[in-house]
Amino acid sequence: MPIIDHADVSWAPAMERVRERYLVSKAQGTESLTIKEVEISPGWENRLHTHPVDVSIQVMAGAIQALVGEEVRTVRAGTTLLIPPGVPHQLINHLWTPAMLLVTYPSAELETDNLD
Q: What is the CATH number of the domain that holds 45?
């Protein structure tokens, strides 16, 4: 039975106000599941994009602004954002503190189609 000690999983070098580490991934032997921890700094935003699979984003600390389809919402710690396949979405951290996210999707490699 594989057990992954998060203390043994290192963070990738930070890029443009965001850093991440893969807690569950192809590197640990999965074929159809990825779970990654993502820390986004104040002022960060990603591009409007879609994925061909469901994506679950649990906000563990802080808050983010999420554009999903035509709806804009603030998603705070203790909540989960569900993004269906093919739905355009974008995340933004307009606050003064970092946000910590746990991102889960049913794929060993996530396809992303940027829309802008």
A: 2.60.120.10
